[in-house]
């Protein structure tokens, strides 16, 4: 199998290029971290602030959680990189199974 | 080879039909002899699905037999390499679409009946049906309690109901989960420990007659060592007889005929009354009602749900309930009784009738 | 390519975690495991949602929870997620000591989170008599949040073990996948926490 | 370093199997353990049938009956059927995809030992006289009320063996995704491999709900929590959901590999490629997917309400469609073929009508209002034995006969195999067909006895007689195994002469490194393609070189026995002070094992080119 792929080619040039790419990516990571902090803050404020409260608070903070988790998965856990097709297939399958469970538990099967 | 095959199949078909007919079971117990609106509805659905399924089985079997007979490797074929067929779009579409159609035919009445059977709006609330009878069923480790909230009476073991009208049930369990099932009158519903379940049944008068006036009821959820013995009986009476029964129940008192029975009553008061009530108007809270109400005990079909109701059985029960229903909740709770006391109690118990 | 081969920054592969077959297998296997964990936590959440109002007369969610504490815990865990990203960033650049440093910070932040959680549980038990055995809500709460806490504890000891074991050896293709996978685990813990603070704490305050 | 063809004493052999990480030996371990538990579960089934042979029987009554019943269901599902399936998957899948081993050989061994520890733990309950007695479903009101430790054995035992199954599933997924030989694209994988893949995915998603459910059960029974205690706000229905969210996919975990086995058997013994390969794959995936949306069909009578019942009823029916696709594709695989009725093929053809009967009664169950009648009656018992015995057990018997030569290098006797088949086939239908009618005639399931005059006597008698035919069949099978292992015919590489997939291209049994050179797969049924071109071997994808092999390890046994000890300790925590201590020690052993695994580097070893050449010349001489 093509498992032993490495960064052949010209190592020197390669190295520089990679370092730069990694650093650039790291910048994105920090930005997304900032956004995550922001989302968390908004969620907490939404609940803290009684005036803001209302029927839409729950869907709103759930939405914030979902967005934040997408950041985690795609940036922190590199799911945006290639080679993550199978992992995302299985993660989403698991999510689907879990969501069906959750959905039934909060809707049709209780009295 | 080819000759005997069709004959063999006809034989099989015959024996299957014979089996079917013989297999209808008892009119008081079999789902194949439906005795009321609910069971009828379920029976039609069962028939519809059976027909569809037999159709499927027949089609598969015909292809199957043709294939295994026609394409077996015969002598001289050892080196034959069959054509390697990849598949066939047309065929595959056929056997995808036809089952879908068959399933749609089955799904429509399924959904419809599901909602019909779950409709208990006549039971309470603003749509309450004035004539509707409501029975609260409470399942307990190996015995059943039936409370008629509108009539303010309680009985046990033998459910008494009027025929040809909707009877609503509100069921629950007091200890572990059981399930309330009268096979010939309708499908079951679980008696849960944390909520009330509701459903309805209709008891058909003609079918009741055919069944001898009595239907068998079963506990259909594993509930412990005596799960198999948690039977109950259903007496389906014409409406006026039912009403008469209710009236008699309301005023029923044990009949104490002679000195023996009187002595029995004394023993009973001392040893048994803490659990068993002898009046249908038992006003104690549910948790205090830890044993079958005995008001109409002598009228019952069975002792403890399973033994024929006669003196011998009662004595047997009082002597050693554990040998009859392992794990029952009466064993060891009523002190030691002498044979004489048992005789007296039996006399007394035999006087508990309303009919 | 032999797993223990010595590398320089230049020869170190671009995705060291997936450069060997063993690494690729570990990487994939671990992701699949996380797929299973997703279902595990979803089930726990479902159970919690079914039971959260069944407090048998004990304290309600509104009475119990204190958002500042939860906010602080959240900040710790969230930051630790970023620090482990830094660690992996340095791993990819073959900067071993920097990687170790960032993993070290991650462990500290995680330990801080765990400390807050222990304090919080202790507080509930003593102030509110809200325990694992006091009601179905109590059982469900401590089970869900406790399962997460146990994951944090496991993650911490795992990363710590890896750091100690490999402290003197430097990076190679045998341990790179291990570090990478441990960091995935750490992120996943954070993902679960996002839902815990939203569903358990914030929604618990809303009612 | 190579252990090829070394002569060993008995002790060395035992040690070898305790420490092995070779998928082929692990397969044998699964086969032996699963086979043993099948005998135990079968014996329990016989006890059930003896007790029910006549009304008012008193052979086993009350609690004892419930224990036998519970252990029969639990043993058969978790300790017999699943491990036997794992035996076949371990024996075959790496060979079918041209891999040297599974992705994680160590984890593979650990999976086996966890399953085994859990199974032994569960059966230990017999020796304590406290077997689980709440049915294999262990509904929580009854299982909470159950005295003594029966249910603790159940919950802890299944928790341990469930962990083993879960990691086994992940292992196969990774193996199939990452370790396929060059050219083995997804759409060239043999169907058995495909079904292993989907089954493993189901395991990955279905076992966590069971894990959670079992934890809640353990917490409630041993640690005082209140998930299932209504008095403190608990709810027993949660368990029913968690169990069936696992339980329904579980039945497809059982049956999909069965489908896989038959897909191989039909193609091989019809000498035809599988009809409609792509739709077979599609149907397998679809069945797996739908399997997660139907669990509440086991709870139609729980009182979930008409909306839930209607949705779940319709969703359940949908599964009939992909299953039907498979049935007809198998029929048309045989159509136009050249069918050879070997023992595996007999099971194959018998499977079709048997399973269809079981499947269509499943659809009947799915019609919710009718299920109010069927539920918890013998109709359901008949349904699931038709699909399980007529589907899964037939497949296991077929698979074991089919791959026996590949696993052991000898053929099983075909004549004895056919005796087993006919006895089993006849006994199976005799036992279970009539149970449909018992159920319709109002007989509830899980009854320890029944009273006379309810119209059930004859049918129960017939059913019990049938069970003895199956017992006779099983005895003949065991005899067959013993006899042929002494003087059975030695198997060729392509043992059946009609092999299509690449496991038949190497010697029987397979060498420990499987393929000397990783093969190049040139299409579906790679070996068949080569054979049709007149070749006898696969095209290699690489030159001969050193082969990397994993090291043996005793740690899996250590880790598993740690959990065993822990479970034993925690079980007694409420009545003995030492309970928690022993539990802690057990956990410490497990953690230590895991720590050592992490700490000690394990790079494996290499079989050198020269040794491989040596083997070659030996083979030529032999
Ligand atoms: C290997 C195991 C296995 C398999 C494969 C199945 C397959 C199916 N099962 Fe079964 N089932 C069990 C094992 C299995 N089951 C067990 C163990 C229980 C009891 C658990 C317990 O309570 O202890 C159970 C119980 C059970 C119930 C609950 C009954 C009750 O307790 O009240 C239901 C209800 O819907 C059900 C449905 C189905 C359906 C619809 C299928 C379908 O997958 C079947 C699909 C197959 C076909 C339909 C045949 C082939 C198709 C064609 C030839 C095409 C044409 C067909 C039509 C148009 C209909 N099963
Ligand atoms: C893989 C699953 C599987 C398999 C293969 C079987 C196989 C069999 N099962 Fe069953 N069964 C279940 C899974 C399975 N079962 C489940 C899940 C339940 C529900 C449990 C519950 O309600 O909780 C159940 C319940 C069940 C019942 C219902 C009991 C009740 O509700 O009260 C019955 C009754 O007839 C029964 C019978 C049989 C029979 C006769 C066989 C036969 O096919 C068995 C044939 C095998 C043999 C006969 C082997 C004989 C062995 C020897 C001769 C050697 C012995 C020697 C030594 C041990 C040294 N099973
Ligand atoms: Cu009550 Cu079974
Ligand atoms: Cu199911």
How would you portray this structure in words?
Chain A: InterPro entries: Cyt_c_oxidase_su4_bacillaceae, Cyt_c_oxidase_su4_prok. Chain A: Keywords: Cell membrane, Membrane, Transmembrane, Transmembrane helix. The complex is a heterotetramer of chains A (111), B (355), C (207) and D (622). Chain A is mostly helical. Chain A has 3 helices and no strands. Chain A folds into 2 domains: 1-80; 83-111. Chain A is flat and about 60 Å long. Chain A starts with 10 loop residues before the first helix and ends in a 5-residue tail after the last helix. Chain C has a single domain (38-205), classed as Four Helix Bundle (Hemerythrin (Met), subunit A) (Up-down Bundle), CATH 1.20.120.80. Helix content of chain C is 75%, strand content 0%. Chain C contains 6 helices and no strands. The mean pLDDT of chain C is 91. Chain D has a single domain, classed as Cytochrome C Oxidase, Chain A, CATH 1.20.210. Chain D has a two-stranded antiparallel sheet. Chain D is globular. The chains are: A mainly alpha (111), B alpha+beta (355), C mainly alpha (207), D mainly alpha (622). The interface between B and D is large, with 93 and 90 residues.
The CATH topology of the largest domain in chain B is given as Immunoglobulin-like
Elements of chain B, N to C (H/E) = HHHEEEEEEEEHEEHHEEHHH
- What is the number of helical segments of chain A per DSSP (H or I, 4+ residues)? 3
Major beta sheet summary of chain A: none
**Global mean pLDDT of chain B:** 90
Mean pLDDT of chain A: 79
Strand content of chain A: under 5%
Query: How far apart are the first and last residues' alpha carbons of chain A, in Å?
Result: 55 Å
Total of DSSP H or I helical runs spanning 4+ residues of chain B: 9
Keywords (chain C): Cell membrane, Membrane, Transmembrane, Transmembrane helix
GO biological process, one term (chain C): aerobic electron transport chain
GO molecular function, one term (chain C): cytochrome-c oxidase activity
Subcellular location (chain C): Cell membrane
